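--- STAGE predict ---
source: upstream dedup step, 1 unique chain passed
mode: sequence only
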Amino acid sequence: MALGLVFAVQTLAVKPYKIPSGSMEPTLRIGQRVVVERVTHRLGESPSVGDVVVFRPPVGAPDQVCADPHQGAGTPTPCAVPGTRRADETFIKRVVGVAGDRIELRRGRVIRNGRRTGEPFIRRCARDPACSFPRSIVVPRDTVYVLGDNRGDSDDSRFWGPVPVDWVIGRAVGSYWPPSRIGGL
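--- STAGE serialize ---
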């Protein structure tokens, strides 16, 4: 019965995740463990700007595949088109734009609807061409635009496009490991 209860809670309410890469540093470190709340998303609440979410990326996301035919290989042009097929793996990133938002990126800083956002949690972006957009994009309906906090070392929506809201699993609400990092996000 106890195992059944644990399984039901993990399936419906909360689920633990281990951070696999440095793409969310300094907010989340490699090996850190977080709890993802799934109830509000299952009840229809959409992610908000600033939320750290776990989601399924489009197929090919780790290889930086964009569904936008205007994005050429090796160019810093942002991907503005969501993928059509969902991968089985999970990623964790921060929502920086929701449907209808106009997003720009300048030296790793998000400009949302013409205003620079306050992001004291990000790691400075090197002189990487992917840290600035040559043009802005508008986030399509029923999607979110996600970026890693470590913009110079993150595969994210810049390369494979916005994420459909129904591919979002839930919102990371706290860290439980290591003990020195216990707390909310």
